[in-house]
Amino acid sequence: MKKTTLLAILLAGLSFSCKKSNSSDSYHLTATIDGQAMVFNTNLTATRGGSIIAFSGASSATSSPGEALLFALDGSSSQPSFQVGVYTDTASSVFLQATYRQTLASQYEAGTPTEGTAIATGMTITNHFTLVITAIDSVSIKGSFSGDYFLNGSPANAKKTITNGDFYVKFQ
Question: How far apart are CA 151 and CA 104, in angstroms?
């Protein structure tokens, strides 16, 4: 519960950041949501501290108010920092939280807590959340992601399938 609270605070801070991406250096956050290509390059930002990395981006002002993608990754004693590699919601060595905020009142979630809920309720997630880091250094993080996201993080609720997720975000 402590990790979830810490990550929620980090994500909230990122979602209200006033910094915008600089399109000249090709930083971006894109995904296909239920077959529709989306861009989340407004307020694009990433932070890191200790074993935690968080990044987010919002859709343009012409889209639904509050529409955004948010991610939090937390390592553990066995995985204290993130390196190039593949991370899934089924891995016990990392904590992953991914949120697609469709509107200010409607959030779809994927990651470790959602997988835990699925296990506890005997449900199966077809497309597990996967995040691939292809490059990471002191300046930026780059990679891809995909998976099924569920309304309020419960596999019993409505689902959004996110594919072709791609990110290249600069650390602030």
Answer: 13
Only one residue has tokens 């810490």, namely 6
Give the 3-state secondary structure of residue 60.
Answer: coil
3-state class (DSSP) for residue 101: strand
| Cβ within 8 Å of residue 106, ≥6 positions away | 151
State the sign of the Cα–Cα–Cα–Cα dihedral 130, 147, 5, 121. Answer: negative
Domain that holds residue 104: 2-170
Length of the chain: 172
Burial class (CB in 10 A: 0-12, 13-18, 19+), 2: exposed
pLDDT, tens digit (0-9, with 9 covering 90-100), for 145-160: 999 999 999 999 999 9
What is the rounded distance in angstroms from the CA atom of residue 35 to the CA atom of residue 30?
13
- The tally of domains found in the chain comes to 1
* pLDDT tens digits, one per residue of 100-117: 999 888 999 999 999 999
3-state SS assignment for residue 154: coil
Among 64, 134, 143, 62, CA closest to 103: 64
| Of 102, 123, 103, the residue nearest 114 (C-alpha) | 123
R_g of the chain, CA atoms, integer Å: 15
Give 3-state DSSP helix, strand, coil % of the chain, rounded to 5.
15, 50, 35
